[in-house]
Amino acid sequence: MSDSVQASIHHIHSRMKKAAIGHDRALGDVTLIAVSKRQPDERIEAALSFGIRHFGENKVQEAYTRWEGRRGQYPDLTLHLVGPLQSNKAKDAVALFDMIHSVDREKIARVLSDEMGKQGRDIPCFVQVNTGEEPQKSGIAVGALDDFLQYCRGDLKLNIAGLMVLPPVDAPPALHFALLRKLARRHHLTQLSMGMSDDFEKAIALGATHIRVGSSIFGARAPV
Ligand SMILES: *Cc1c(COP(=O)(O)O)cnc(C)c1O
User: In which element (H, E) is residue 211 found?
Assistant: First the structure.
């Protein structure tokens, strides 16, 4: 198992390199986040021993159990929250994570800002944009983004690093990546969290600075 995780990481790195070279991007400008949600421990150990230090999780509690004890051993760990956050978990999220990719509504922005103030933390955040206008999906509608960013940056003084998208499953992702890049430029935001196992090369081509790759590194996840 650990051999296959390391082979997968090797393969992802070469795909990243190829995409970067092909689209005039510096490889150093793209961070690979290994999304470790619902993966067994031995696969995570394999990734750690191969030098991976950026990990993504989508549940605060699961992330705590897995990562809190490893901080001491790996001081350069960077933990990314990539899933929707409930306000009653904001305190733990602020204590644990180094980047939050899923700021998707006013209430969560407010609670995060309060918690960061209390804990003396200033965590870079991404605003999730619902570019597909999907009713069941979290994220800020494109038309509401200006006001939302103004609220986060102006009123709450949140550290907004960039934008994040999870494109609709049945649509060509490139259109959504290109729209996210356009929106980010308009707001002078430099970071783009976009691209997963099946589409990260397209995301790199369109300016991704953070790609979130799970199953292509670790294999299939345990069911929810
Ligand atoms: C699970 C997840 C990923 C990783 O998905 P894969 O298809 O396994 O690469 C990326 N982003 C988010 C927000 C996720 O929840």
Answer: strand 210-213
Tens of pLDDT, residues 112-154: 999 999 999 999 999 999 999 999 999 999 999 999 999 999 9
Atom of ligand 1 nearest to the CA of 212: 10
Q: Which two tokens mark 78?
A: 């960077």
Determine if ligand 1 sits within 6 Å of the CB of residue 162.
Answer: no
Report whether 87 contacts 111 (CB < 8 A): yes
Q: What is the pLDDT of residue 129?
A: 98
Q: Is 139 left (phi over 0), alpha (psi -120 to 50) or beta?
A: left
Whose tokens are 């979130």? That residue is 212
C-alpha 195/C-alpha 203 separation (Å) is 5
Q: For 165-199, how does the pLDDT look when each residue is reduced to its tens digit (9 = 90+)?
A: 999 999 999 999 999 999 999 999 999 999 999 99
Q: Say what the pTM is.
A: 0.97
Contact between 34 and 218 under an 8 Å Cβ cutoff? The reply is yes
Which of 146, 113, 117 is CA-nearest to residue 129?
Answer: 146
Amino acid at 106: E
> How far, in Å, from the CA of 118 to the mean position of ligand 1?
30
Tokens of 116: 């960061």
